[in-house]
Specification:
Layout (H helix, E strand, L loop, with lengths): L13 E6 L6 H18 L4 E6 L5 H8 L6 E4 L16 H7 L3 E4 L2 H6 L4 H13 L3 E6 L3 H5 L3 H13 L4 H4 L3 E4 L14 H16 L4 E5 L7 H5 L6 E4 L6 H12 L2 H8 L1
Parallel strand pairs: 1-2, 1-8, 2-3, 3-4, 4-5, 5-6, 6-7, 7-8
The structure holds 2-phosphoglycolic acid.
Keywords: Cytoplasm, Gluconeogenesis, Glycolysis, Isomerase
Family: Belongs to the triosephosphate isomerase family.
Subcellular location: Cytoplasm
């Protein structure tokens, strides 16, 4: 199946995507993705670019449900930077592309914390994704300790620069960056306030706002805070875990984004 290149998919201006982390088998993946496809075909989504990121094992099934030219982008949660070789247990960018992925998540805080992901490996992975024509979705974010020390901006700008410095303007324009403060992610996280996010996004916006394909926010996004988060300057999307693990939850978030002034302005421009 020759899948539409991610570069040919319009995108945005608002991106709303979900990673399912280590959840969902084949049947559940197919059911979710089928429902999503039907919804998008029926309702349209002017101004919003959806993306879903299942487990490696379910990427091919998700692609099968979406077909080759779906407006929904399909991603993987990680990939190795080498195309192949003696890397037991790893999956390459070439392989996820072969399975139907168009996007790859790189440097999620859970990968950095539990699997030794470093700035150096995120850099290699961004390069591999670009080499294969996939959208790198680079995740950055500081811990609670770094935030308490008042070092958030310095820390996230270093993570971003470490992974992205040296890219050409054309390569940079294909990258998505998700700012996901570690203290805001998952069951043990607490939602960030709009106020807390102003400075990080001002800093990221200055460095990467125009240069990249988009700046997303992630970490305890839910139906109650999504609209306010989208309203923050330089935020051009949401990267969602738990609140989008059910299809109705994800569809509601897509609808909220589609009705947001940032999406409406672009759709009617
Ligand atoms: P959460 O996950 O929305 O469940 O906090 C976000 C993430 O890990 O990207």
């Amino acid at each position: 199946m020759k899948v539409t290149d991610a570069a040919e998919i319009g995108g945005g201006p608002l991106w709303v995507g979900t990673s399912w982390k280590m959840n969902k088998g084949l049947a559940e993946t197919r059911q979710y993705v089928r429902g999503l496809s039907e919804h998008v075909a029926r309702a349209g989504l002017a101004g919003v670019q959806p993306f879903v990121i299942p487990s490696f094992t379910a990427i091919a099934a998700a692609r099968d449900e979406l077909g080759a030219h779906s407006p929904v982008l399909l991603g993987a949660q990680n990939a190795h930077w080498e195309d192949g070789g003696a890397w037991t247990g790893e999956v390459s960018v070439a392989q996820i592309k072969d399975a139907g992925a168009q996007l790859v998540e790189i440097g999620h805080s859970e990968r950095r914390e539990h699997f030794g992901e470093t700035v150096a490996t995120t850099r290699l992975k961004v390069a591999a994704a670009l080499r294969h024509g996939l959208v790198p979705l680079l995740c950055i974010g500081e811990s609670a300790e770094v935030k308490r020390a008042g070092e958030s901006s310095r820390f996230i700008l270093e993570q971003a620069a470490g992974a992205l410095d040296g890219l050409t303007a054309e390569q940079m324009a294909r990258v998505l960056v998700a700012y996901e403060p570690v203290w805001a992610i998952g069951e043990s996280g607490r939602p960030a306030t709009v106020e807390e996010l102003q400075q990080p996004f001002a800093d990221l916006g200055r460095e990467y706002g125009d240069a990249t394909r988009g700046l997303l926010y992630g970490g305890s996004v839910n139906l109650d805070n999504a609209v306010d988060l989208l309203g923050i300057d330089h935020v051009s999307g949401l990267f969602v875990g738990r609140a989008a693990w059910t299809l109705p939850g994800y569809l509601r978030l897509l609808e909220l984004a589609a009705a947001h002034p940032k999406a409406v302005a672009a759709a009617t421009a």
